[in-house]
Amino acid sequence: MQKKLSFLFKSVIFILILTLIIKSIYFAVNFQKYKFGHFVKGLQLKHQHGGSNENTFKLDNGNIFILGKNDDNGNYTPSEIYDIKTNKVKEIILPKNLYYWDNGLLLNNNKLLITHAYDSNNSKYKLEKAYPYDSMVILNLDTMKFEKLIEKKINNTLEPVRCFNIMNAALFDDKVFMYQRGKVEIYNIDKNTSELMNISLDKFLNVDQVFPTKENDILLFGSNILSKDKEKKVEYGDLDYVYKYNYKSNTIKTAGKVLRRVHPRRIKIDDSRIVIFGGKAALPDSNSKYREITELKEIEIYNINTGKAEVVANLLEPRCYEFMGAGGFNGAKLGDKYFLITGGKCFLGPMFGIKSKTSPKDSEILDLETYEIQHGPKAKEELAGQKMITLNNGNIFIFLSQRAGNNRGTQFFKQWRINK
What we know:
8% of the residues lie in helices and 41% in strands. It has 1 helix and 33 strands.
């Protein structure tokens, strides 16, 4: 009996030592990946939300607000608040007297400008050629009530389209800049008035994202393949112009060049830098058909002050959008010094012939001082179409769009205390 107990005791000790050795080896191998922090699962949201990057916002109190929608097809999704301190999710039922999409721009004083909205009781929308969602509405995030509804003048100058994207709008000096197909509109928040700016452009700028500067200028990014220009062949490595709009002079001028990309991520990391990464270089032939698509690994830093862009590092794995724009990658600032990049599984189908080794759980971390890049830890669940928001404590909140697998799931990337 004593021998059996002794053998059992030695076996337990052996298993414990072996387990400790295996864990030590695993820790040693993965130390570099986990030295900045780790992913943890958050709560499940109560509802599925769309793939828009403009429906998730950090409020003044540090909580996360996720804008729902109420469209004219009978699709209603309540909004939600993720309370960071209590780790609870609260459903928010907004008034249903307006139709609106889940696109917004966070204003000052805890208010949100919803950029696609309209009042269905207005008789004009009963006309056959009426263009709905041609208005904006301000949502008070303290009371969760709609305050102001204003029609966008920019829609009256164009053929009706539903593609006006909030990425073409920016807040500056208590005003909102909006750009759509060669037209600029300035919305004055305090006066609740809007002005269509008369700008003479010799080129039609294909803009897909804008950023305000501390000087209250607006930077416009997009493609310089212009509809008014003659058709020309596009080569790999071609550059796109960056443009700058000045409100006082009401002019748009060139402000540097960046690598031409299809569906990249551009994220402003401070007052002087915008990081640009991921996406593809698409090379149409003379018949405007895609003859080759090359994934771009280059990470660029665009200097807002000098108007110059520089390739500072290469992604360890290519990261691009998934089929039908589901969006496979994103990034967010991690503390003051680092930048976290997640997701990126590239799948465009056999007709394009792209094969990517990047797992949607993989992450990378870019040092914003030295621009060194290294592998980060793996996410708890696959990330596709994810939103990423840096919290007040330096951690990162992540949640998935309705096109991802667990489309109500949330995650956090938490730094170790020693790194904060």
